[in-house]
Amino acid sequence: MHAPPLPFTRDLVLVGGGHSHALVLRKWGMQPLAGVRITVINPGPTAPYSGMLPGFVAGHYARDELDIDLVKLARFAGARLIPGTVEGLDPVNRLVHLRGRAPIAYDVASVNVGITSAMPDLPGFAENAIPAKPLGPFAQRWAAYRDGSGPARVVVIGGGVAGAELAMAMAFALRERGREFQLHLIDSARALSALVPRAARLIRAEMARLGITLVEHAPVARIAPDHVALADGRRIAADFTTGAAGARPWPWIAETGLALHEGFIAVDAFLRSSDPAVFAAGDCAHLTHAPRPKAGVYAVREAPVLFDNLRATLAGGRLRRYRPQKDYLKLISLGDRSALAEKFGTALRGAPMWRWKDRIDRRFMEKFRDLPRMAAPELPATHALGLAEALGDKPLCGGCGAKVGRAALRGALNTAVSAGRDDITPLPGDDAALLHTGGARQVISTDHLRALVEDPALMARIAAVHALGDIWAMGAAPQAATVSLILPRMNPALQQRTTTEIMDAARAVMRAAGAEIVGGHTSLGHELTMGFTVTGLCERDPITLAGGRPGDALILTKPLGSGVLMAAEMAGRARGEWIVAAWQQMTQPQDEAARILRGAHAMTDVTGFGLAGHLLGICEASGTGAELDLDAIPVMDGAEELARAGIRSSIFPDNRALAPELPEGGRADLLFDPQTAGGLLAAVKAEDADALVAALRASGHGAATVVGRLVEGPPRLSPT
Prior knowledge:
Elements: E1 10-15, H1 19-30, E2 36-42, E3 46-48, H2 53-58, E4 67-69, H3 70-77, E5 80-83, E6 86-90, E7 95-98, E8 101-105, E9 108-111, E10 116-117, H4 125-128, E11 130-131, H5 135-146, E12 152-157, H6 161-176, E13 181-186, H7 197-209, E14 212-215, E15 220-223, E16 227-230, E17 235-237, E18 240-243, E19 247-248, E20 260-261, E21 264-267, E22 278-280, E23 285-287, H8 296-315, E24 330-334, E25 336-343, E26 346-350, H9 351-369, H10 387-391, H11 406-413, E27 424-425, E28 433-437, E29 440-450, H12 456-473, E30 477-488, H13 492-512, E31 516-525, E32 529-538, E33 553-556, H14 562-570, H15 576-586, H16 591-596, E34 602-605, H17 610-622, E35 625-628, H18 639-644, H19 652-656, E36 680-684, H20 689-698, E37 705-711, E38 717-719
Parallel strand pairs: 1-2, 1-9, 2-5, 9-22, 11-18, 12-13, 12-18, 13-14, 21-23, 30-31, 35-38
Antiparallel strand pairs: 3-4, 6-7, 7-8, 10-19, 15-16, 16-17, 20-21, 24-25, 25-26, 27-28, 28-29, 29-32, 30-32, 33-36, 33-37, 34-36, 35-37
């Protein structure tokens, strides 16, 4: 008898995706602690490595070389990633508060959120300048400015090491592009005061060589669109202003009730705060037993100790002390491919220092790009025939919610509705049924998904939108829903937490659609699975698959690709930003799109059978063929690239067999990609199509487009 999966009994929540937590996640993937469910919360799908920022600004690194992909890292660690903004931590109730989402409960938490900037507090900064962090908006603005034309006028505020590195990198990049420039580095006191005198002199000389004007003891009064006004009345011309000064703790930390030091979380030798269930590391923490300056090297060195102490706290073991080094090697970029190295008062500069820094930085980032492959369990030596083939070469979900193929499903369900029920109207090929109750026309449908993401609340939103698709596609108004929920094995406390997250998220989706959850059923099993049975009311005859007419234009409201993206994510082959964008598509409701398309002749939602399979359903029910414009079909970011690389979801072969006449390879393969919570596919009057697409895009469905038309002939699909 095989042992069932071990139940979860403790929640570990990592607040922030900083260097310490990234290393903890990597180590956790290789040494997980049984019974612990781990969550990481970060504003986005990636965490930039600040050590390579000057090299990116100078043009030595591509943008994506700076990013730690937290989606891949979370998958490797068996963790759920929540892209969200933390607004508070409540140690009394052990909750992490997020913007726009229910709180996340924890048994043990760790904070590694770095520091924020006081730059936006400067008058005019928010309107006329951009901080160097977060990296995403800064990188986009800088790349556009750097590659522009004409004289450049740049101001960097903050004369510490970070500001000097930024200024030198900018000067080098502008010089390399042959642009004339004026670049000022401004500090309210003496610049580079944290460095030993020799290091400061070398950097000042390098800045002078690059043409940087250093302005010291000059507080900034105001940022204007075309200049920076100083407190002494001087004006410095600028059309690109940024800042690397004013580092301070995140404001929400002050509200936690934890012991603080100058606003930073005070931690002991075990990296533990005044609450033994809350740890902190990196720049957001203050080492009370051995104070040190804010530097990324300490966050990296703290990671192994943090990992051990989190495990010890969760498992009831002994804690390990963190002993920081007295000094650390500072490697400072000098704009070109040279750097300055400083430690113990000694400073050296030159190209070898840059190669040294580059090697260290790349080696650090390689830890997260070359994640160890954990061996899959081997099949027993003796096993039934066909077992290896049934398992296949990808996870069961494989990007399609573990759905059964269309052919198998039709074979099992190809039975007529009982003639003894005159209150049920059979509908041609639709997933829903039409019921007549007391003069009302009611549609009912059910959908059930095996979890394709680790976050129960996100999965609930996806599953709710997915289940509502049939109701919206028939032109009905959602009315009521019941939920069917299978939780993975966990103790009662985690059952309550998880069920609360799921129901809060699902209820929000259903209520926004006009429906209420009126009941349901829960049980425990091997993995998270959820579904909804949904009813809707029709004011007029429902839209079915059977009303399409030759000449109708075919409108698709969402891009394709969720299947291949989820399959790639499970295999660790998708970029994090692609996956988060796909999540956003899958959680986008279709109620407004259904309202705009309420006059469609035929309509369906595109889900497990892919666009080709669901369009074939319209053709079969309507007695038409269809032509598809492959170039017009919208696809999700990364989907076509992954399809060309041969990534497939587990149901792809069944879907592909439905329309063998269509082309193969690349974008064409996405026609057979199973979609979760996909868009609506509507057959509409050709003369109305452009206006409908414009209305859809105006309502937030930016990918909506005409993808083909219905034609005379047998139910067959062909490219235009």
